[in-house]
Input
Amino acid sequence: MPTLTRSDAVFKAIADPTRREILALLRAAPATVGEIAGRFRTSRPAISRHIRQLRRAGLVVTHKRGTNRICELHGAPLVAVREWLADYEALVAALTARSALVQ
Output
């Protein structure tokens, strides 16, 4: 399997709805892995795998506090998403304008 670039890793990470929800939770405040897992019906090991994927993409950083592992959002890698979307802004604007004319 080829090695992913950082931006590929970011897109892969945000492609999953559970990982996007984890990012939304962390946008509000840092949380422990247990607190995050408590918000989902899936198992704690599954949530840990999602967090690991987010860490690999650089979207989440973790540190230990006592016996807890605290997760925090690190949004800088999302710049790759913004830059990618910027290439399509003109297209979206044109489609939106065309749609407004039809209505």
